[in-house]
Amino acid sequence: MSDAAEVLISQCRQAGQRITAPRRIIADVVAKADDHPDVPEIYRRVAEIDPTISLSTVYRTVKIFASTGLVERHSFAGGRARIEPASEVHHDHLFDIESGAVIEFRSDEIERLQALVAKELGFELTGHRLVLYGRPLARKARRARKP
Amino acid sequence: MSDAAEVLISQCRQAGQRITAPRRIIADVVAKADDHPDVPEIYRRVAEIDPTISLSTVYRTVKIFASTGLVERHSFAGGRARIEPASEVHHDHLFDIESGAVIEFRSDEIERLQALVAKELGFELTGHRLVLYGRPLARKARRARKP
DNA sequence: CTGAAACTGCAACTCGTTTGCAAAAGCAGA
DNA sequence: TCTGCTTTTGCAAACGAGTTGCAGTTTCAG
């Protein structure tokens, strides 16, 4: 079990949750995922380790992890939520519309402006969601595209 | 029927769609909505004018309007999509987490930085989604409307 | 080692949204 | 106007991600 997974598990225990075999496995899978998988994908990876673990359990566990702040759920495109282990450092996401891949980035400048905008509108900023959608810049040949 | 609704239905006709009574009514409701209603809410408003119009028709019509670029669908929180008539001027949204109200805003500075970030990551920015979540700073006269 | 409380698998359910179908209506052209 | 070919509609059933009730299983404090 990875380091990160152990942190996840121990934090889970501290949150008053019981540590079970399914949760260990799910924590492990989530902790080592660097590609923002969705729940069915996590389920697939979990099933490779223990096929008896059910999809509901994966949903339930991810939900618990999320409510304890151990993982984050994002919705980039399509209906299903994509999961990533929570990180200390806040970041936003760039969604590659051609491959569905997700790139993380961070812009203090944008963050600063967001807070400013909210304040000007008379609001205390409690959170935000910024997703950029884009396609890879073709260096040599242009791809087929719409105008 | 409002001006904006007439524009909507005439553009709809130009897109090769037939103009029907349900579509007129839905166009009217959507065109005069300034509060980003969700589809069930649009259905409610439509039903006040003609209760025989079905929810499916509202969904279908909103979908057509969206695919023709006449209205936009956003997802701020919760599962349901919220609708607004398309506007020439691009803007982002601030979501009042206390009332569910949506405030539109625009920041050229943020837009500029977004394109810059994307470019630095090797992407052509094709779109973005920025939603700020916040709560009202001071207790003032609030004119928030729920969906 | 025990047993109350928490957890699990399963199937059934929710809820926003979509779809198959037969009936109804729009919109050319005659 | 009327005709007839499409498109559109209402209904109900279907969909898909996610949730939940239940009964049996497991955890872990004592």
TrEMBL record, chains A, B:
This is Ferric uptake regulation protein. Keywords: Cytoplasm, DNA-binding, Iron, Metal-binding, Repressor, Transcription, Transcription regulation, Zinc. Homodimer. Signal peptide: none annotated. Belongs to the Fur family. Transmembrane segments: none annotated. The keyword Transcription regulation applies. It is found in: Cytoplasm. Its main location: cytoplasm. Pfam families: FUR. It comes from Bosea massiliensis. CDD domains: Fur_like.
